[in-house]
Amino acid sequence: MSDFAEKLIAWQQAHGRHDLPWQQTRDPYAIWVSEIMLQQTQVSAVIAYYDRFMQRFPTIASLAEAEQDEVMRYWSGLGYYSRARNLHHAAQTIMREHCGIFPTDFDTIQTLKGIGRSTAAAISVFAFNQRQTILDGNVKRVLARLYAVEGWPGLPDVEKKLWQIAESVLPSQGLPAYVQGLMDFGATLCTRSKPNCHRCPMQASCLAYQQQMVSVLPAPKPRKALPEKQTTVLMILDAGEILLERRPNHGIWGGLWSLPELSPSALAVPHVKTTFDMDVEPLETLPVLWHTFTHFKLEITPQPLLLQGKRPPPAPNQQWLALEDAVAAALPTPVRTLIKELQQLRF
DNA sequence: AAGTCGGGGCT
DNA sequence: AGCCCAGACTT
């Protein structure tokens, strides 16, 4: 038996979960229902649904005979409703094509709707004590760390490698405890954030731990490049003071004081004349600034301007502030950065 | 290979 | 406000 499997089984016996409702049985139907409910759904959310469902549909036959509407009612709130439709459909398939007996053959199990390789493996192990491996999100994380597998596990090549590793570390016996251990270990110790490496029996052999890669493995799903927007902000100066404008309550930086904004296509000098009734002269430009929000990147072009002549009275949503006060004010970070840069340029 | 399904917990 | 969860299926 691989060193990993041996340690995992020992860990499972000491620290794993043993009292979940679907662990008290070897009925393939009960285990099947639990596995479907647990797809992309946390244990704590499943338990109540599982108990209610099994009370109403205790057997394959009772589920197959039920109206789809009633099945859906018992699933309502769990999400991923195709799981319930597939479960219902597969129950009827078993009645029709398998004499009402849940199939024991691994490949046959996978032909049932809603059962892929990992779920088929879980059923095969827990109900029939067969030698198969699962590969769910927990197991992917555990193996990606133990074997320092780089790349997002959703990539076919990476997933293939993880299946291969999962098979290679499979013990020859004690499969139920081992597979339950895989899941419990990933769910409670080798967690996504803040894994408990101190209490990990695999620490010495964990490649990610050795290479200090635990926090970056497995690699997160690559995000699509954020859309880029651009804007120009006006830095209108007069007597060591800068003109600030309160932003509308809705939208980005809602209600915050900021710099007046200008659509990138507009010309600064005429715009300021029309909008603010000020005569200004352009100053030396500052470098463009990038700011990243959660949903887009913003290219901010600062446009410093020097007021010529008399300062008109500020509108209610405007104020003049000394540069050093502006730096200390509660302005959006990139705006403060720009004002700081301008301040240093002046002296 | 990418999109879809989903409520809920976590950060 | 994303990201992820005992994934599988469709496009």
Automatic annotation (TrEMBL):
Protein name stated in the entry: Adenine DNA glycosylase
Enzyme class: hydrolase
Gene Ontology molecular-function annotations: purine-specific mismatch base pair DNA N-glycosylase activity
Keyword Transcription: no
EC number assigned by the record: 3.2.2.31
Stated family: Belongs to the Nth/MutY family.
Purpose: Adenine glycosylase active on G-A mispairs. MutY also corrects error-prone DNA synthesis past GO lesions which are due to the oxidatively damaged form of guanine: 7,8-dihydro-8-oxoguanine (8-oxo-dGTP).
Cofactors, names only: [4Fe-4S] cluster
SMART domains: ENDO3c (SM00478), FES (SM00525)
Gene3D superfamilies on file: Helix-hairpin-Helix base-excision DNA repair enzymes (C-terminal), Hypothetical protein, domain 2, Nucleoside Triphosphate Pyrophosphohydrolase
UniProt keyword annotations, A-Z: 4Fe-4S, DNA damage, DNA repair, Glycosidase, Hydrolase, Iron, Iron-sulfur, Metal-binding
Catalytic reactions on record: Hydrolyzes free adenine bases from 7,8-dihydro-8-oxoguanine:adenine mismatched double-stranded DNA, leaving an apurinic site
Residue ranges the record marks as coiled coil: none
Stretches assigned to the HhH-GPD domain: 37-188
Naturally occurring in which organism (per UniProt): Methylophilus glucosoxydans
Cofactor note: Binds 1 [4Fe-4S] cluster.
Taxonomy, superkingdom: Bacteria
CDD domains recorded: ENDO3c, NUDIX_DNA_Glycosylase_C-MutY
